[in-house]
Amino acid sequence: MAIDGYDPVSYFTDEKPRPGSPLYEFVWRDAVWRFANEGNLAAFKAHPDVYAPRFGGFDPNGVARGLLVKGDSHVFAMSDMDKRLYLFSNEDSRRTFISDQDLAAKANSMWQELVVKVVP
Fold first, then answer.
1. Are the beta carbons of 86 and 103 closer than 8 angstroms?
2. Which residue in 5, 13, 51, 115 is a FRET match for 35, CA 20 to 30 A apart?
3. How far is CA 60 from CA 5, 25, 41, 43, 101, in A?
4. Residue 3's closest CA among 23, 14, 28, 13?
5. Distance CA 28, CA 96 (A)
6. What does the alpha-carbon distance between residue 96 and residue 8 come to, in Å, rounded to a whole number?
7. Least confident range of 28-32, 63-67, 78-82, 90-94
């Protein structure tokens, strides 16, 4: 179950996670994604790369260090720079990432090596 069953589109529309429903499911990249309503499901189907969390939902600070640390669906940030959703393992990691702009570049660089381990 992707991002613990929360609707990825809700982070953008409601600015918070909303539980998805088993009535609105979609399989993408070997994971089941749930949505709060049909409109959010349609938006995700049209642009999954926009709505899915960056780095497969792994904590960007871990990714920057070459580690796959699961992000918490309740500890998140929306990037002003790329308008993407980021999940973090804890609040300290979130604060560190927001305050250090170099971490995003490091994570992007390392992700190219890590993505082959997690994305089919």
1. no
2. 115
3. 20, 26, 25, 25, 12
4. 28
5. 30
6. 23
7. 78-82
Can you give the pTM of this predicted structure? Answer: 0.92
Spans of all domains in the chain: 2-51, 56-118
DSSP string for residues in 14-53: TSS-EE-EEEEEEEETTEEEEESSHHHHHHHHH-HHHHSP
Of 86, 82, 87, 62, the residue nearest 72 (C-alpha)? 87
Instruction: List the structure tokens of 56.
Output: 């497969």
CA pair distance 14, 11, nearest whole angstrom:
6
Say if residue 81's pLDDT is above 80.
Answer: no
Amino acid symbol at 6: Y
Structure tokens, 42: 């349609």
